[in-house]
Amino acid sequence: MKSLNPDSIAPPFARYSHGIEVPPGWRMVRTSGQLGLDRDGSVPEDCKAQAAICFANITAILAEAGMGPGDVCHVGAYVTDRAHMPGYMAARDAFLAENAVLPSSTLVIVSGFTRPEFVVEVEVWAAAP
């Protein structure tokens, strides 16, 4: 994959790329949005802990396709308040810590999810040969 960050526009605000070029013929995986719901049904109150569960779930889904965090080409995330952004971004940066090419990214503030205790939802696109 190739990161696309033209010098003619402002640089990204955080650890992401403005665009990603996926080579022809690569396999694509798209996950559903993952919530901070642990396997035992518990939901932590903290956004960072919820986001860590989201990324752990995503890691497991990608593994089913023989992929991992290094294959992620786009991250889409939704939080219920600006106050949750630092916790989400810390979990996202930990998930992407080993990535040679940073994915593109979208972060949106939403009014809520299916249950009020959820404060973050994350989905990804991944690509691999």
What does this structure look like?
- Its EC number is 3.5.-.-.
- It holds the Pfam family Ribonuc_L-PSP.
- This is RidA family protein.
- Keywords: Hydrolase.
- This protein has two helices and seven strands; from the N terminus they run ββββαβαββ.
- It is α+β, with helices and mostly antiparallel strands and 129 residues long.
- It has one domain: RutC-like (60s Ribosomal Protein L30, Chain: A), CATH 3.30.1330.
- Strands 3, 4, 5, 6 and 7 form a five-stranded mixed sheet that branches.
- β5, α2 and β6 form a beta-alpha-beta unit.
Features:
22% helix; alpha+beta; two-stranded antiparallel sheet; 60s Ribosomal Protein L30, Chain: A; 27% strand; 2 helices; 129 residues; single chain; five-stranded mixed β-sheet
The overall pLDDT, averaged over residues, is 97
- The count of β-strands is 7
CATH class label: Alpha Beta
SSE series: EEEEHEHEE
CATH fold-type name = 60s Ribosomal Protein L30, Chain: A
Helix content, binned percent: 10-25%
- The CATH architecture can be given as 2-Layer Sandwich
CATH superfamily: RutC-like
Strand share of the residues?
A: 25-35%
Distance between the termini: 10 Å
Largest sheet: 5 strands, mixed
User: Low-confidence spans: pLDDT under 50, at least 5 residues?
Assistant: none
Estimated radius of gyration: 15 Å
Shape: globular
Class per helix and strand makeup: alpha+beta
Count of discrete domains: 1
Give the helix tally: 2
EC number: 3.5.-.-
GO molecular function: hydrolase activity
Pfam family, one: Ribonuc_L-PSP
Keywords: Hydrolase
